[in-house]
Amino acid sequence: MLGKLIKHEWKSTYKPGCLMLGAVALITFFGWLAFQTPMWQKMSSGGSFEWLDLFGIFTLIMYVVMLVVVNYGILIYVGVHFYRTMYTDEGYLLHTLPVTKHEILFSKVLVGSLWMLFVVVSIWFSVFLLGLSMVSAVLPDQYSLIEFWGEFQYEMWDVLRLMGVEEDALFLLTLLISLLTPFVSVTTLFGAISIGQLSSKYRVLMAIVAYVGILVGESLISSVIRSILTFSRISGMGNYLSRTANFDFLMKLMVAVGLYFISWHVINNKLNMN
Fold this sequence. Notes:
- By secondary structure, the protein is mainly α.
- It is built from 9 helices and no strands.
- α1 runs parallel beside α5 and α7 runs antiparallel to α8 (203-230).
- It starts with a helix and ends in a 5-residue tail after the last helix.
């Protein structure tokens, strides 16, 4: 039955999700157009400012704005969808199905997190492509993009080695955090929405207050952790950064796990859709 729940959840969310992926592709195309203006070639060879350069600047500004909108837009959509299908009239049929509350909650967390992951990956890929476009636009004719990329990788890893960061450990840690962060974000949001349902009225407002409060609390704890690590005499900037990142993510992961069970408790014992 869990598979059917996941399939149904996927069908009910794929259109907005695909729309946002299409939006990322579209704004990436316009970002690429911005780097085709003469302004970027003139950065390496010199030249006067032209009216077409305004198009390039405006397009890049809109590119950044739209990426931010899409990034937060998918999170807002997932949260609104969760609220509507769990705590409003739309959720009556769902809660009458012969499935456990864990299966219902898990299916929503899984599908929502996957859409978050897809959008985040598409955004990073878009930024990577735009970075290559910018570099190719300003590189001298005798300097190839492949040569630049080789030198960039060498210099980047050289800096990391000087900071005391192990390449393999950094790659695995970054990959793990990148894969789990969407699940942490979605579970945290669902937990805040569920906490808001404990209020007798103004539940949406209370959910927003709970979400902001959770984020502020996490930020304060992260600041305390950084302060402790700052005075713990950790050798090397790389070790300091890796430890703070690890503790920060571990704290958020523990909060998300706790909020998952809070959501389950509310759905299982405190459900009130009046």
